[in-house]
Design a protein that fits this description.
alpha+beta
Length: 93
């Protein structure tokens, strides 16, 4: 993905490795960030893992609708709980 110059004659090497599991329809990506000193010795290495599923547009819309309904239900429940908490607080006085 790239080799980038850093201050003090250091380098940042960014690369990735990816795999696709067709039976699960899941793509896994590992991004690596490696820093090297002026002698070319690695001083630091970090890795970030990314996983995502490839889904059809109709499945995406169905999941989005389900998540929206869940989020709306949770918001209503939270509102009710906070209202009940206020009511209970009034009775405790």
């Amino acid at each position: 993905m790239g080799d980038f110059a850093l201050p003090e004659n250091q380098r940042l090497l960014v690369w990735m490795q990816q795999a696709y599991a067709s039976d699960e329809r899941v793509t896994s990506i590992h991004q690596f960030y490696e820093t090297f000193d002026a002698r070319g010795e690695m001083t630091q290495r970090r890795m970030m893992e990314i996983r995502f599923a490839l889904i059809a547009p109709d499945e995406f819309l169905a999941r989005a609708r389900q998540d929206w309904k869940l989020a709306r239900c949770m918001a209503i429940t939270t509102k009710r709980r906070s209202m009940l908490t206020r009511v209970h607080a009034c009775f405790r006085r």
